[in-house]
Specification:
Elements (H helix, E strand, L loop, with lengths): L7 H4 L6 E15 L3 E7 L7 E6 L5 H5 L6 E10 L7 E12 L14 H6 L8 H23 L3 E2 L5 E2 L11 E2 L26 E3 L4 H11 L1 E9 L12 E10 L3 H22 L1 H11 L3 H10 L3 E4 H10 L16 H12 L3 E7 L15 E9 L3 E8 L4 H10 L8 H8 L5 E7 H9 L20
Helix pairs in contact: 4-6, 4-7, 4-13, 6-8
This protein binds 4-amino-1,4-dioxobutan-2-aminium adenosine-5'-monophosphate and magnesium ion.
The site of magnesium ion has 3 residues, from β15.
Length: about 475
């Protein structure tokens, strides 16, 4: 019987000599030195490739010499200590099967490619060192999310993707419709008649699972969602995507302080997991992408996050003597440059900014007693800016209804949401963590387009 294939991550842990190992993967490089051909085989199971040495005695040696980068092969051989520098072990090949050839037009040749070029061939990016590492880290972090909440007894809730409610009240939603855009049915007033649409009303892709999540927290106490969210905002930055993944915990009997405590423990857990489980990949990022990355992550783990009110943050920004592109004043939205000054220059580590003016925050946030601010929190981190947005929720029916009306939203559309305040309302809080921004933070990758498999941004939706 044939020996089963062994993944390269496991091969590289073996003590040589080991005979009769079967390995399958794609060729990263092919080096022909006349008497032997050196193959570098990678199967994505780890960062490192396996060096396979094909001697001239190999059947079909001439075919081996013609192999090119990108081809898929299966090799059988003996694992030996490598006489050359660069690898501890190598495989002396006794049998080679070409599974799938890649011709010379394979675009990923040995040289380093720019990330912009690689975005154009995002379907081939998983074959590169950098993207293999990014997506292994992304996967480990996603698993760590479930582990964190699972260990704390949170219930994982699958909130809907299609919705009629604007969870943020900001009007940045993609429409979902089956109407013919060229000839939609019209009502007597000449407007599109959504009665005839699939759901008999206007519907959209969700911007956040929070409102549905809240209804579950009002029965299951501690819940979280982890799913795709969509924003039709025309933001062309390295930190915005039209489709991104968000993690949203929601906790009954919880105030803003408890919320920030959980967020801090959560971010630290994710960081720790990456350091523990993705050491080889992080070492690569630390060397090639973002020098100082590992030390920074370790520093974040050891320090407690700063907490500062919005009012205090604005005061510190005004006093900074810094020249900002956008003006700073109480009531203004904090821009990326302000956020980065706070977390990078002023504090030098993650900082929660809390209690923002109610005018610049979402309708569901709990109004503070000062009448001017709401119990909001944003977690700002170096190099990224806003990683988390959260709040204590307005649990008082009259105040919430007032905020909905004030936000020019339709209380009828939110009747189900208001019911949670009508029937056994309790103080509760939650937050949303942008998963791609977390992956950027942990890997040092600078563009959100390079930490999501197939990025969707304004004017870009390929693959
Ligand atoms: O601050 P946001 O808009 O908050 C909410 O959606 C709340 N409903 C969350 C909650 O309280 N349950 O978004 C939360 C996080 C941001 O801090 C940011 O990290 C990320 O989601 N985010 C984006 N990430 C990538 N591209 C975009 N366009 C993003 N918009 C927000
Ligand atoms: Mg926000």
């Amino acid at each position: 019987m044939q020996r089963p294939r062994v993944k390269i991550v496991d091969v590289l842990k073996l003590e040589p000599p080991r005979s009769d190992l079967r390995v399958k993967g794609w060729l990263r490089t092919v080096r022909d030195s006349k008497q032997v051909v050196f193959l570098e085989i990678n199967d994505g199971s780890c960062f490192a490739s396996l060096q396979a040495v094909c001697p001239a005695t190999l059947a079909d040696f001439e075919a081996v010499r013609k192999l090119s980068t990108g081809s898929a092969v299966e090799v059988v051989g003996q694992l030996v200590a490598s006489p050359a520098a660069g690898q501890r072990v190598e495989l002396q090949v006794t049998e080679l099967i070409v599974v799938g050839l890649a011709d010379s037009s394979f675009p990923l040749q040995k040289k380093r490619h720019g990330f912009e070029f690689l975005r154009e061939i995002a379907h081939l990016r998983p074959r590169t060192n950098t993207f293999g590492a990014v997506f292994r880290v992304r996967s480990a972090l996603a698993q760590a999310v479930h582990q964190f909440f699972g260990d704390r007894g949170f219930v994982y809730v699958h909130t809907p993707i299609i919705t009629a409610a604007d969870a943020e009240g900001a009007g940045e939603m993609f429409r979902v419709s089956t109407l013919d855009p060229a000839a939609p049915p019209l009502d007597p007033a000449g407007k599109v008649d959504y009665q005839h649409d699939f759901f008999s009303k206007p519907t959209y892709l969700t911007v956040s699972g929070q409102l549905n999540g809240e209804t579950f927290a009002m029965g299951l106490s501690d819940i979280y969602t982890f799913g795709p969210t969509f924003r039709a905002e025309n933001s062309n930055t390295s930190r915005h995507a039209a489709e991104f993944w968000m993690i949203e915990p929601e906790m009954a009997w919880c105030d803003l302080d408890d919320d920030a405590d959980l967020a801090e423990a959560f971010v630290k857990h994710l960081m720790r997991t990456a350091l523990e489980r993705c050491g080889e990949d992080l070492a690569f990022f630390n060397k090639q992408i973002d020098p100082g990355l590992v030390a920074r992550l370790e520093h974040v783990l050891s320090a407690s996050f700063e907490r500062m009110s919005y009012t205090e943050a604005v005061r510190r920004l005004e006093q900074s003597g810094q020249k900002f592109e956008f003006p700073v004043f109480w009531g203004a939205n904090l821009q990326a440059e302000h956020e980065r000054y706070l977390t990078e220059t002023l504090v030098g580590r993650p900082v929660f900014v809390t209690d923002y003016p109610k005018e610049i925050k979402a309708f569901y946030m709990r109004r503070n007693d000062d009448g001017k601010t709401v119990a909001a929190m944003d977690l700002l981190v170096p190099k990224i800016g806003e990683l988390i947005g959260g709040s204590q929720r307005e649990e008082r029916l009259d105040v919430l209804t007032d905020a909905i009306v004030h936000g020019h939203l339709d209380p009828v559309e939110y009747a189900w949401y208001l019911d949670t305040r009508r029937f056994g309302t309790v103080p509760h809080a939650g937050f949303g963590l942008g998963f791609e921004r977390l992956v950027m933070y942990v890997t040092g990758m600078e563009n959100i387009r390079d930490v999501i498999p197939f990025p969707r941004t304004p004017r870009h939706c390929s693959f």
